[in-house]
Design brief:
The complex is a heterodimer of chains A (about 425) and B (about 500).
Chain A: H1 4-12, E1 20-38, E2 41-42, E3 49-63, E4 68-74, H2 75-79, H3 83-91, H4 116-122, H5 129-142, E5 148-163, E6 168-182, E7 189-193, H6 199-215, E8 226-232, H7 234-249, H8 251-256, E9 278-281, E10 304-308, E11 311-312, H9 319-325, E12 339-342, E13 346-348, H10 349-355, E14 360-366, E15 377-389, E16 392-404, H11 405-408, E17 415-418, E18 426-435
Helix pairs in contact in A: 5-6
Chain B: H1 7-13, H2 16-28, E1 31-48, E2 51-69, E3 74-79, H3 84-99, E4 118-121, H4 134-151, E5 155-172, E6 177-193, E7 200-207, H5 216-235, E8 249-252, H6 253-265, E9 279-280, E10 283-284, E11 295-300, E12 321-325, E13 328-329, H7 339-342, E14 350-351, E15 360-361, E16 365-370, H8 385-394, H9 397-400, E17 404-416, E18 421-433, E19 436-440, E20 444-448, H10 449-454, E21 456-473, E22 476-490, E23 496-498
Helix pairs in contact in B: 2-3
Classes of the chains: A alpha+beta (about 425), B alpha+beta (about 500).
Chain lengths: ~425, ~500
């Protein structure tokens, strides 16, 4: 990437007589190819084969009067004339002593994130997608499914981090992902990573999804509402449970008292959640979607334990909120495959289904973004749930699932459940399910 | 009426030669081209505890090329600059991708646009985005936060202000050339209770002008909404949960927007007609009865509104779509790719999140409108739960239902159009009876679209259409808005349920 004009401007710009005393530029280029399918139509007009090429930077400036500016700059400003954006940034400068820190060079870990095959995919060599599309279509025909939607994408990117403290570090990576849903069900299958998973794993994921979609075709006998065993599929755990935890572990929420957890709880030794529950992140997993070398502020990537055996260990902290809370900054999770939610009691899926007889497997929920993440109260629609009987699934139930997440995460009834092919566990809990 | 234009308008006006060169290049290769450029200017402020915690400015621009071959196959490319050489290379790669799509089983489409439009639609006052005084806005936000904090002891207040100007220009091979600007600003408050069981409640107000701080009426409305949200956040930790089930309901206009948006709007978007519950064999079920004869659902752009867009992302004028006309399906939300197949009129409903996105049929401002609504005098913000109870009592609702659940405040929603399953959430539930008003914690409202619309009985008050949101679909997010009469009464329906515990 061409940054000479930018560096010159940062050195010489004097909008309204002000000079730039410090800067942090996180500059990213991405080339991406996406193939969409809507209702069996691959690459149709509403999901066309798409190619994109982008270059942008997130920046922080510290002016010579101590004020701070943040913003986003795109290709033309970076490569040719940054001055207008710098002038706009000065107009938005504000006083924030906690945000002035600029990091210098450091020892950064090496983690594999670049796959040559995916580079070719992102450039348009789409052959590896062809058998996968054919496999999806074959399952449609083999199982009497009516339609499917989804996408496949590949991207190749480069990130360069430049700071006024002498940091100049780069990382190159690829990403690929796919997602599929059948017959309009919002429950689906998919995988993100730095490279395509082996075809056999892809096929197994598809087959597991087909099994669930076929099981949803039958209707379960009506059941009265009440507190029953509820098995949350890993997809629900990611969409809701981990989203709530991460929201409340965000340093910004902690610092301002707008989350569920207070500053005093971190490091206090008091078990806020069940004493065997751990949430940790490891950005150094090779070829994981969430793998990276450094944060956009220059903090080296390293494993972090956020919740340690029920105790709140540390919030997720960027430089600003680390300073404000008097704690060291850390590297946040970038994707679910580098976030590890663990408990002492972990059972496999068949054992969980046996333990949940009389209850439901909740495959997907609607309305996550409508919940109050601070209170942990939840009331979610679960139109894709399977009744669990003594001999397995008894058909589909539509209903609402409700309770308080923090109560569930403190409960002795909680069990972690291993699902094949999933890095995130399912959760077996007891909470209210009201069938329609 | 157009006033002085923003500099980002000028930036797109300067791309005429580039667009025409690309159209000529596409034509030479046998492709029809839709060229779409966007330039944005945005600023966001965040104030907490009496100080600015974040101020972010962003500017960006770029263009997308949607190339359509003679056989209907298409591909889309995008890039964030207007350099002639990279743009030509992007177009060539896009046409190559469309040509080589056979290996993937790429489907063709039928692009049937209306007569090409040549137009400019630039609202007055957009030059103010070039001269946005963020220091003054910050000071005003800090003052507003101080006022709210003194009124709401024990409640943590976060205020945010966002000002966005989007300018779009679309040219097509058939001569269409439209340029329009979409200004939108929004003030948001997020209020959290303190103590062991914290609740957060939000409030917002949208306006097309970045000088909305200077409008006393707008500020008063915003403060009234924020105070109500703060009082609610303080009261919710001690509120009981509402039982689950089907109940007679009253919903406010913001929730009615949610109902219209989630239950009917998405299912009427024509890109999903091979699976939508409102379509049969890919065609919209025009003429089918889906609700009572006094109820209509209408989507149309409203000038100055948060989701206003006068032209579609392919350059067609955006038209009113009466999705439900007095209980019967009539118009779908269609674009030039889908109208013919859907068997309905072209309504120019396609929108794109950015120049990087291929357009999709989307809503703009959607409302539920009733014939002969009952009166509800005064401003909506004047209606406490007690006053809503009195309104219902005066109209005789309690003679039909001994108790009614009043769902107040929109908390977002979601739908699965193939099945018609929808959900949305409120900020609070009040159990209303002739002599009672009892606050309960919010709960999900879910069910089938037909049950919900069929349950609508009375409406109270004038139309109020300023409920705002963000609509996500297919990885793209666009502003949405809408509303209804101040309040709607819904009879119990087994297909529509409140969650609960």
């Amino acid at each position: 990437m061409e940054v000479a004009a930018l560096l010159t401007a940062l050195r010489t710009a004097r909008p309204q007589g002000r000079a730039i005393a410090g800067f942090n530029f996180d500059i990213t280029t991405i080339r991406r190819l996406v193939i969409g399918t809507k209702d069996r139509e691959t690459g149709g007009p509403h999901a066309p084969v798409s190619l994109s090429d982008s270059l942008n930077a997130r920046f922080k400036l510290v002016w010579d009067d101590g004020r701070v500016s943040r913003g986003v700059m795109e290709r033309r400003a970076i490569e040719s004339d940054p001055h207008p954006v710098l002038a706009s940034a000065l107009a938005a400068a504000y006083d924030d002593p906690d945000a002035r820190t600029i990091l210098g060079p450091s020892a950064f870990p090496d983690v594999p994130t670049l796959d040559p095959g995916t580079v070719k995919l992102a450039e348009g060599a789409i052959d590896p997608f062809v058998p996968r599309l054919e496999a999806i279509r074959a399952r449609l025909a083999d199982h009497g499914l009516k339609t499917w939607s989804g996408s496949m994408q590949a991207a190749h990117g480069n990130t360069r981090l430049l700071t006024s403290a002498g940091l100049d570090v780069e990382a190159e990576g690829t990403s690929t992902s796919w997602s599929v849903s059948f017959d309009g069900e919002s429950v689906g299958a998919g995988k993100s990573g730095r490279r395509l998973e082996p075809f056999e794993e892809f096929a197994l994921r598809l087959d597991r999804l087909v099994t669930l979609v076929l099981a949803l075709r039958g209707t379960a006998p009506a059941r009265p509402g009440g507190v029953v065993p509820v098995l949350f599929h890993p997809g629900v755990v990611e969409d809701y449970v981990l989203a709530v935890l991460l929201h409340n572990l965000d340093g910004e929420q902690v610092a301002h008292g707008t989350g569920a957890f207070t500053r005093a709880q971190f490091g206090s030794g008091f078990a806020s959640l069940r004493p065997d529950l751990t949430l940790r992140t490891d950005p150094l997993v090779p070829f994981a979607s969430g793998a990276y070398r450094f944060t956009r502020e220059g903090v080296p990537a390293a494993p972090v334990t956020l919740i340690d055996r029920g105790r709140l260990a540390t919030p997720m902290l960027d430089l600003k909120y680390a300073r404000r809370l008097g704690l060291p900054p850390n590297a946040p999770p970038a994707a679910m495959d580098t976030l590890f939610f663990e408990g002492a009691l972990a059972i496999d899926e068949p054992a969980a289904l046996g333990a949940a007889a009389g209850g439901v497997l909740v495959l997907g929920v609607l309305g996550v973004h409508t919940q109050d993440f601070t209170s942990g109260d939840f009331s979610l629609s679960a139109p894709q749930s399977l009744a669990i009987g003594a001999n397995g699934f008894e058909g589909r139930l539509r209903g609402t699932v409700s309770g308080n997440l923090f109560e569930l995460l403190r409960s002795d009834d909680l069990a972690f459940v291993r699902f094949p092919g999933e890095t995130t566990p399912g959760l077996l809990v007891r909470c209210r399910f009201d069938a329609q | 009426m157009a006033g002085p234009a923003s500099t980002i308008v000028t930036e797109l006006e300067a791309q005429t030669d580039l667009a025409k060169a690309l159209i000529a290049r596409a034509q030479a290769r046998g492709a029809f081209l839709i060229w779409r450029a966007q330039a944005t200017r945005a600023a966001r402020l965040l104030v907490r505890s009496g100080r600015v915690e974040e101020a972010v400015v962003a500017q960006g621009s770029g263009h997308g090329v949607h190339a359509v071959l003679d056989d209907g196959r298409s591909a889309f490319g995008s890039r964030d600059d207007f350099g002639p050489e990279p743009s030509a290379a992007l177009l060539d790669a896009t046409i190559d991708a469309a040509s080589s799509g056979g290996a993937l089983g790429v489907a063709g489409g039928s692009f049937a646009p209306d007569a090409p439009s040549t137009a400019r639609d630039l609202p007055a006052g957009i030059a103010a985005f070039d001269a946005l005084d963020l220091d003054a806005a910050s000071a005003r936000l800090v003052a507003l936060e101080r006022e709210l904090t003194s009124d709401l002891p024990g409640v943590t207040t976060t205020l945010a202000f966002q000002a966005v100007l989007e300018v779009w220009r679309i040219l097509r091979s058939d001569g269409a050339d439209v340029l329009f600007a979409v200004p939108r600003c929004v003030l948001r408050a997020s209020l959290s209770s303190s103590g062991d069981a914290r609740h957060t409640v939000g409030a917002s107000l949208a306006d097309p002008s970045p000088r909305m701080f200077d409008d006393p009426a707008a500020v008063a409305t915003f403060l009234a909404r924020a105070r109500a949200a703060g009082s609610l956040a303080a009261a919710l930790p001690d509120a009981p949960t509402h039982p689950a089930g089907s109940f007679p309901l009253v919903i406010d206009y913001a929730l009615a927007k949610g109902l219209a948006h989630e239950a009917f709007g998405h299912a009427s978007e024509a890109d999903g007609f091979r699976s939508s519950v409102l379509a049969r064999d890919g065609r919209f079920r025009s003429g089918d009865t889906v609700g009572p004869a006094h109820v209509s659902v209408i989507d149309e752009p409203v000038q100055g509104d948060f989701a206003w867009q006068p032209y579609s992302a392919t350059g067609s004028p955006r038209r009113r779509a009466t999705i439900v006309d007095h209980g019967r399906l009539r118009d779908a939300l269609t674009d030039a790719w889908s109208a013919r197949g859907a068997g309905t009129a072209l309504t120019g409903a396609d929108r794109a999140e950015s120049f990087r996105s291929a357009p999709l049929p989307r809503m703009s401002n959607i409302r539920i409108e009733l014939d002969d609504p009952l009166p509800a005098p005064g401003a909506f913000e004047d209606y406490s739960a007690e006053r809503v109870r009195d309104l219902l009592g005066d109209a005789g609702i309690f003679s039909r239902h001994r108790r009614v659940a009043f769902l107040s405040g929109y908390g977002g929603g979601q739908v699965n159009p193939p099945t018609g399953d929808f959900v949305f959430n409120c900020k609070a539930i009040y159990a209303l009876g002739p002599d009672e008003v009892v606050l309960h914690k919010p709960a999900i409202f879910s069910g089938s679209m037909f049950g919900a619309l069929g349950a609508v009985r009375e409406g109270f008050g004038p139309l109020k259409l300023d409920a705002i949101g963000s609509c996500g679909k297919w990885g793209q997010s666009v502003p949405s808005s809408g509303g209804s009469h101040y309040f709607l009464v819904l009879d119990p329906d087994p297909g529509v349920r409140l969650g609960g515990r």
